[in-house]
Amino acid sequence: MRETLQERLVRTGLELLADQPAERLSLRQLAEKLDVSHQAPYVHFGSKRRFLAAVAGAGLRRATAQAKAAVASAAEPLARLHALVDAYLRFIRTQPHVHDLAYGPLVAKADHPLLQQAAIEYWDLLHETVAACQPEGTGEEEILRRCAVTWGTVYGLATLDEESVPGDRYALIHEAVDTLNQVWHSK
Predict the structure, then answer these.
(1) Which helix (H) or strand (E) holds 5?
(2) pLDDT tens across 40-63, in order?
(3) Rg of the chain in Å (alpha carbons)
(4) CA 182 from centre of chain
(5) How many helices (H) and strands (E) would you count in the chain?
(6) Rounded Cα distance, 4 and 98, in Å
(7) What distance in Å separates the CA atoms of residue 138 and residue 36, rounded to the nearest whole number?
């Protein structure tokens, strides 16, 4: 099956984000790289913001697939949560510009259905993984609260400046996850 121009635009956008932040991505440069009209991205996406949201969605969808594979490879609930954290940290480390685009201020989930769906899939994976770590009888409202705390803790520590985090950032994040799990089971 041949790749559509819309798919090629998104794929090439992801490739360009390997070397530069989204703020520097030029739709003219993208069109020239694909040898298409400078208007092609606008014809297919309507605006640069919608295009960037589609690119962010494609990148986040890939990250979600990698995270799902990592979680599936772990046997125990807490090991699956650590695998999810590792996959997320790998996403930040290997695709920082895609991560920043997906979670930053340039685009919103509502800007493109691909980004919205990818964000839902990642949240569902987080929810499923955190829920599996909970003691029997933990209600859905509490699970959602614990998902938010887990996400906030991991995201917050992962995105702090290097100088702001004493010691090994990744070890600290995993220690925080272990602490959360201990608290969940102490009540």
Answers:
(1) helix 5-16
(2) 999 999 999 999 999 999 999 999
(3) 18
(4) 26
(5) 9, 0
(6) 22
(7) 55
